[in-house]
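#lab-general

N.A. 3:47 PM
ok so I finally got the sequence cleaned up, no stray characters, all 171 residues accounted for. can someone with queue access submit it? mine expired

B.Y. 3:52 PM
send it over

N.A. 3:53 PM
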Amino acid sequence: MTAARVKSRAELRRERRRRAHGCWDHLLIAPLWPKHGVNLGTLLRTCDAVGACMVVPRRPWIPDALAHGNTLRKPQCVHWIQGRPERWLERQRTNSAIVGVELTDESIRLADLPTAQRRTIIVLGHETTGIPPEGLELLDVAVEIPMIGTGHSLNVAVAGSLVLYKLAGLC
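B.Y. 4:20 PM
back already:
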């Protein structure tokens, strides 16, 4: 087995964008019922990595959570919604595929999720209670991330990041 060559910092810098991507409006991750602010910053970093945008509800604590959790130097694409998340999701159904990250009887495995071919919204639920029933009714598909450990689920930022990479076609 040959030793792997590690890329230098200069090589990595040359391969990356010089500035943040704009709004491509193709992949949107929507933690619509957030519980922990630290997850939002982690998701913003993943959005930058795959060229996605984030959709969040207007809550007093969310701007601060995004500012503290985002370690990137450039501004990221964040869409703000007013009112009930279910109403926003309902309006998006006309021009978007809606993918929920949730354990349901009909969930498909992450490995079986195809790359996004059209505007796609990835819906994430509350850390404890998941996507509420009103939100589940609006999904086109639910995806589950198989686990062999004793935990019930992954951290919402980790789960959302895995689904973003899969839908972006990067894994």
